[in-house]
Design a protein that fits this description.
The complex is a heterodimer of chains A (about 140) and B (about 180). Chain A is of the alpha/beta class and about 140 residues long. Chain A contains 3 helices and 6 strands, in the order βαββββαβα. A 4-stranded mixed sheet of chain A has the order 1-4-3-2, with helices on one face. In chain A, strands 5-6 form a two-stranded parallel sheet. In chain B, α1 packs antiparallel against α5 and α2 packs across α5. Chain B has a single domain, classed as Rossmann fold (3-Layer(aba) Sandwich), CATH 3.40.50. Chain B is of the alpha/beta class and about 180 residues long. Chain B contains 7 helices and 5 strands. Chain B is about 45% helix and about 15% strand. Classes of the chains: A alpha/beta (about 140), B alpha/beta (about 180). The interface between A and B is medium-sized, with 17 and 21 residues.
């Protein structure tokens, strides 16, 4: 049991997100593990998850913030945790979430998807099979 | 009379050049996917592909064969096309594994292409996921026979139908290719 990794969960509202993360940083959760996004497509909202770790005590905390799928806007935490810089950019191009006050600017170029001119591909309503067969073609066998 | 002799000498010389080419294949192994894993045992002492005259080189300008080892994402495909266009004229493309044939595991991925022969002229496909070193050597034997027989390689097709290939490439990359 001692070796087990445990996460304490906390649900945050979008308005309080930046303050909460800063508070946790002050309290010793100074290590930014990751951030990711869950697309709850039928229920029509995103859930962005921030995972922080306290290196002294070994505690982990998971901050979950709900946001609407259309017009998803979040405050950028890259000022506090520079590690979030590229993870935010990844979420921006994979899910189409906009990050306010991002150090790289509001209009971000693609990092992972080069010259991507289609919809954000990790959203649940993006049909990858249809997209691939339309753009890349299929082998026809007789 | 004299012209006949000359053309005969030319034929013999051409055959000799093809034979020499087929026995010293310089391979640019551009490791795109998981296929690079199977190249190492083929190269090293267990299967040792240098005894068949196949040797890896580091730069496209010296290479005869471009190995596409596995799936190609959109970003990699662009670089592969650049590498292919840098290679000098007798050049061949070998597609490895099912990913280059029909998409393989990644048939429904938004990031990887399904059909390599839309964008580059493929001379030889080696089936498998991934092909074993035996299959790779067998495939190279087929390629050698093709070079030895003087059959036109894919690069001639690429030059002849450049518009078609370029149109396919532009469909993915716009004007950046």
């Amino acid at each position: 049991m001692k070796e087990q990794v445990r996460f304490y969960e906390k649900k945050v509202r979008i308005e309080d997100l930046y303050e909460t993360i800063r508070e946790f940083k002050v309290r010793g959760f100074s290590y930014f593990l990751f951030m990711t996004c869950v697309d709850w497509y039928p229920r029509n909202y995103f859930e962005v998850v921030y995972a922080l770790r306290n290196l002294k005590t070994g505690e982990n905390v998971k901050l979950r913030v709900k946001l609407p799928r259309e017009n998803a806007v979040l405050p950028s935490v890259a000022e506090e945790f520079p590690l979030a810089l590229y993870q935010e950019r990844e979420l921006a191009e994979m899910f189409g979430i906009r990050f306010m006050n991002h150090p790289d600017g509001d209009k971000l170029e693609n990092v992972i998807l080069e010259d991507w001119k289609y919809d954000p591909p990790m959203r649940r309503d993006f049909d990858t099979a249809e997209f691939a067969s339309h753009l890349f073609g299929e082998r026809k066998y007789d | 009379m004299k012209a006949g002799v000359l053309s005969k000498i030319g034929d013999i010389l051409g055959d000799f050049i093809n034979w020499a080419r087929s026995n010293s294949i310089f391979v640019l192994h551009y490791c795109t996917g998981c296929g690079a894993v199977e190249i190492s045992p083929t190269l090293t002492s267990r299967y040792d592909m240098t005894r068949f005259g196949i040797q890896p080189v580091a730069t496209p300008r010296q290479a005869d064969v471009l190995l596409i080892t596995g799936y190609l994402s959109l970003k990699t495909l662009k670089r592969v096309i650049w590498a292919y266009e840098q290679m000098s004229a007798p050049k061949y493309v070998v597609g490895f594994g099912s990913c280059t044939i029909n998409g393989g595991h990644y048939w429904d991925s938004y990031a990887t292409i399904n059909l390599l022969d839309l964008y580059l002229p493929v001379d030889l496909y080696i089936a498998g996921c991934m092909p074993r070193p035996e299959a790779i050597i067998e495939g190279f034997e087929v390629l050698k026979k093709k070079i030895k027989s003087g059959e036109p390689g894919g690069w001639i097709d690429y030059e002849r139908r450049k518009d078609w290939y370029k149109a396919n490439q532009r469909r993915l990359f716009g004007d950046k290719i």
